[in-house]
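Below is a filled-in request sheet from our internal design queue. Each sheet records the structural input a requester submitted and the sequence that came back. We keep these sheets so that new team members can see what a complete request looks like end to end.

REQUESTER: design group, bay 2
PRIORITY: normal
MODE: inverse folding
CHAIN LENGTH: 251
BACKBONE (tokenized):
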């Protein structure tokens, strides 16, 4: 079957799934998502990647929170958590909180001795802090929670990503294939280039091929996400489920 006819068939399935949601009608321009999907499909075909594999990865990476949607969103920035940060005084907690809020984190986990507070806003932590005494800050840890931010256009995503870099925070994933900037920034000349769908997808292909040696495609997908087996296995399952959905497979 020629690429064009395969492309039309898979797009038809995508449209059926897209019809179940009006998310893009409210916030996003579906034409931009459609063009991104076309670009990914062309890269797959050109590079000999199994049809729908890159698309499935992009949906797992940039489709989180877009319930019922089958098209990827190119202007996505995934802000990764730095993990728990120990603080010993109240002012240190407030300083870290101010910094993390400034760069874009919205929810936090807070440990105070043996108590764990989850999914708190910065304002809620301010209240807890006000009610706490200085001697309570013996074992206190703050963890910003991962958040995916989707911007309506490239300029807004670029501005956000550049602000992260300017504030010395590089642990974020960028673009259609969510390339980690901290580890892969050398693959791009700028944040703007990383937000280009074609360049982002091509870099993803080069990284997949790097991990393809002596691995099946699905093992490679796992390594694309993590070299830790349990994380890789969970990621493979997510991408496989999306791949089945795209191709309308039963198992």
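RETURNED SEQUENCE:
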């Amino acid at each position: 079957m020629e690429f064009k006819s395969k492309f039309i068939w898979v797009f038809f399935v995508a449209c059926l799934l897209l019809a179940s949601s009006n998310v893009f009608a409210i916030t996003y321009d579906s034409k931009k998502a459609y063009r991104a999907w076309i670009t990914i499909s062309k890269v797959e075909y050109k590079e000999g990647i199994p049809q729908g594999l890159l698309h499935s990865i992009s949906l797992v990476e940039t489709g989180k929170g877009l319930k019922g949607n089958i098209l990827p969103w190119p202007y996505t920035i995934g802000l990764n958590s730095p993990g728990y940060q120990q603080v010993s005084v109240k002012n240190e907690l407030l300083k870290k909180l101010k910094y993390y809020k400034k760069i874009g984190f919205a929810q936090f986990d807070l440990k105070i001795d043996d108590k764990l507070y989850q999914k708190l806003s910065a304002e809620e932590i301010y209240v807890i802090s006000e009610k706490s005494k200085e001697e309570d800050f013996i074992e206190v840890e703050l963890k910003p929670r991962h958040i995916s931010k989707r911007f309506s256009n490239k300029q807004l995503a670029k501005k956000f990503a550049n602000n992260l870099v300017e504030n010395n925070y590089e642990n974020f994933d960028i673009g259609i294939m969510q390339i980690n900037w901290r580890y892969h920034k050398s693959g791009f000349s700028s944040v703007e280039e990383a937000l280009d769908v074609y360049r982002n997808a091509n870099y993803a292909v080069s990284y997949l091929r790097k991990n393809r040696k002596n691995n099946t495609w699905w093992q490679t997908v796992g390594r694309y996400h993590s070299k830790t087996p349990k994380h890789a296995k969970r990621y493979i399952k997510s991408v496989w489920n999306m791949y089945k959905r795209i191709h309308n497979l039963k198992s």
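SHEET NOTES:
- Confidence is low (pLDDT under 50) at residues 15-26.
- DSSP finds twelve helices and eight strands in the chain.
FILED BY: M.R.
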